[in-house]
Amino acid sequence: MNAAEQFVKCLESEGVRYIFGVPGEENEALLFALEHSSIRFIPCRHEQGAAFIANVWGRLTGCAGVCLATLGPGATNLVTGIADANLDKAPVVAITAQGSMDRLHHESHQLLDVMNMFRPITKWNGSITAPEVVTEICRKAFKEAEYEKPGATHIELPEDIADMEMKALPTIDRRRVRRPGPDYKAINATLEQLKKAQKPLIIAGNGAIRKLASKHLTRFVKRLNIPVVSTFMGKGAVSDKADQSLHTMGLGFKDYVLEAVEQADLILTVGYDVAEYPPKNWNPTGDKPVIHIDFTPSEVYTHYHPVNEVVGDISGALWELNRQLSNDDLNFNDWYTPVRDRIREDLDSYTPDENDPFTVPSVLTQIRNILPDDGLLLSDVGTHKMWIARNYPTYEPNGCIISNGLASMGISLPGAIAAKLIDPDRKVIAAMGDGGFLMNAQELETARRLGVGFVTLVFNDNDYGLISWKQIQSRQRSVSTEIGNPDFTAFAESFGIRGYRPENWDDFNSTLKNALDHNELCLIEVPIDTSVNQELVEKLKTYWEQ
To answer: What's the rounded Cα separation, in Å, for the pair 381 and 217?
Structure first.
């Protein structure tokens, strides 16, 4: 057996089902080793698309998604997707080929220092410099990628090492690693601080969407009647149907939800990630008392200096708090109700009338009515991301996927492929702007080849709309953002799938429902009126000036 075949044995031992990537000369040995394995290699149309598929696979399953590229330009094309996984805390293992060891000491065709290139965007990376280290490097890559907080790792496999003959080695079994529980003194301090508080509030981040963490957080929130606000990537940690949900924060300007944050006299952050939403946006003076509950200690930040840190397994911390409070009569009043009602009334105001134009928030109200509670909406990055975070109620963990660490355009279409491979029966919508769509539109061919069915929903404003919106806020006009587009329905049809351009709300609703009911891979283009964006800014500005 050669080193590549040993590597594939290790990947099988890790439970890998798919590898997403683009073939190259230097990963030939690995591709042939995969041919008769239990792992399916899926050729993608761009390495970035492959990395995004692996990214969302990891985020939805908790098990590392795997992507593959050759050396040089193949490796550089992976960079954005790998960096995105690392900042979004999604477990991914990236594999890149490399030239033979005998040419790495001088300038050579397509040769780049990939190890150093990946170092700042991964939790760990390693090069297989001898066949005998394959098993250890493979196990370490997966262990590091999946252990909290999860992220991206990278393995480099030079082409001559891949072909070297070796004695078969036993693989290193996956073994569960128990995360440490929280310190009892930190738990006791949290209980004492809760008992002194009058208006506590929880901020749920992406660390809270793990299933056990979500379960124990929901119990904690309902047991004590504490309002909870989610970040973009924490949506669904507590269902937005819960009375205690104040939906989402994260806009670049003050929304209604920040009224509750300002009123709170104690903030508990659960799995909160400062990469998502800077603390200065919700704790501008830095003096709000904060309890940090997370897998790792808090970042050092002027506006985020917790009075108490509960470090360890999040679900374990919440379980212990629930246990100790089980016989306690601690329960907070409904001080947050006026804010919650204001938020929900505002969301309802975007329900469209028959002759209203299409806007992103009005489309979202219809999607929420049509998509089942356990369906999945994947958001790309753009103006629509802000509206999805703000206006799309989410009822379970990972019911809405948003990239908000690196926040990369082009993620939602490839991500939908991962979602459908994981659960072919789940109803999935990949929502994106016209700008983000054309960044990875080529993966429609991958989706069609795989036979997966999901709706690609393109909000079309012929503009890089989020940048335009921000420019208008700061300079009252926008420049260098307008773009042109193809005929999207014809573009979809060129891939052998149907393209739709609804003319009215009845047409939109029936088209979307029919596509979801029939598990159809299709594209729906929605030309949107963007005036609603600045109207929101002015509405909120007027509210806060009152």
So the answer is: 28
- SS3 string of 161-196? HHHCECCCCCCCCCCCCCCCCCCHHHHHHHHHHHHH
Domain 3-163: assigned CATH number: 3.40.50.970
Q: How large is the C-alpha radius of gyration of the chain?
A: 24
pTM of the predicted protein model: 0.95
Residues of the chain with pLDDT > 90, as a percent, come to: 86
Cα dihedral 20, 25, 30, 33 in deg (nearest 10): 110
Residue 361 has pLDDT above 90, yes or no: yes
Nearest-angstrom CA–CA distance, 239 and 199:
21
CA dist 180 and 195 (Å) reads 26
The model's pLDDT over 263-274, given as tens digits with 9 standing for 90+, comes to 999 999 999 988
Q: Quick one: which of 275, 301, 304 has its CA closest to 290?
A: 304
Structure confidence at residue 437 as a pLDDT band (50, 70, 90): very high
Per-position DSSP letters for 398-418, written without gaps between them: TSEEE--SS--TT-HHHHHHH
CATH of domain 349-545: 3.40.50.970
pLDDT of residue 200: 97
Q: Decide if 151 contacts 86 (C-beta within 8 A).
A: yes
Residue range 391-435, pLDDT digits in tens:
999 999 999 999 998 989 999 999 999 999 999 999 999 999 999
110 DSSP assignment: T
d(CA 288, CA 242): 25
- Is the CATH number 3.40.50.1220 carried by domain 184-336? yes
Closest C-alpha among 43, 14, 122, 48 to residue 412 = 48
Residues of the chain with CATH 3.40.50.1220: 184-336
What gap in Å lies between CA 456 and CA 497, rounded to an integer? 11
What is the mean predicted confidence (pLDDT) over 240-254?
94
